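Data deposition worksheet. Section B asks for the primary sequence of the deposited chain exactly as it was used as input, without tags or linkers unless they were present during the calculation. Section C holds the resulting structure in token form. Section D is free text for depositor observations; keep each observation to a single sentence. Incomplete worksheets are returned to the depositor.
Section A, Depositor: J.P.
Section B:
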Amino acid sequence: MPDSEIDNGPEPDAGGGAGAPTDVPAQPGEQSIPPRPETQGTGGNETRAAATPGRLGRVGDIAGGRKAVWAAVAVLCVVVGTIAALLGAHAVARSDARNERKAFPQTTASMASTLKLAIQREEELGISASTFFAGNPKASAAELGRWVHWAHTLRRYPELQSLGLAALVRAPELAIFDARVAGHATKPRTARSASSAAATAAAAAATAAALRVVPPGTRGYYCLTSAELARSAAARTPAGVDYCTATPALLASRDSGHSIYTAARGGLKAVAIETPVYRGNVPPPTFATRRAAFVGWLRTLLVPGVVLRQALHG
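Section C:
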């Protein structure tokens, strides 16, 4: 047959189009490589897009778990810090209490010593003032003021509010006492004027009324201020106050030689101390000699709060 009529089968595609199967058998000794599947561009994008939400979800779960862990750690730190602070405060309180217990006896002893010194200072004030009045039983307010200024009494004793002498004045001597305190000259009594007890009583009653004795009334004796120096007007004793009526124990203190402590009048937060004064500034040994040497009562008005503040401040 002619060569043109011989059917050699289908000719291979010259272009070698993609996806065209090849029937070429593998040569001996060569390995057959399977064809790689080709993916379309849009299909790969869709696969990655589908995988992205899952990854984001896993990242969010991890981030949320970390936040929870850190929140738990923060809460734990706060709890531990609070417990540590409470334990530290308790330890500090116990240490402070222990130190205070150790320091309490020393502080108490120091305050007691300071108060003892303050009491000794008050006794020195009483002794010096009693010495002045024992040597000057009829001292005027001006003479007392000069002595107080000379001794720097008000500056050395800030707790002192007033200082004075209360004298025992019998009814017949009331007019003379009033004139002496007021600074007026008086005529000595004559035998003719002393002969009439009724006239003397009437004159004493008139003098008591002129003095405005508090409480008013005619009595056999009065305990009146003969000289006084006060730090302020509130501490000054009103004129005519009869201390024997306000404090009946004054006459007993004259006989015993002991001081009397009473609350100040007029709402002043102070203590009034009445101390009997005798000539020679020493209490005589017997009852009769004490009455004979009696001059009056040293009256001091003290504010205890000032003494306590001085003791606390050392």
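Section D:
DSSP finds ten helices and five strands in the chain.
The longest helix spans residues 41-135.
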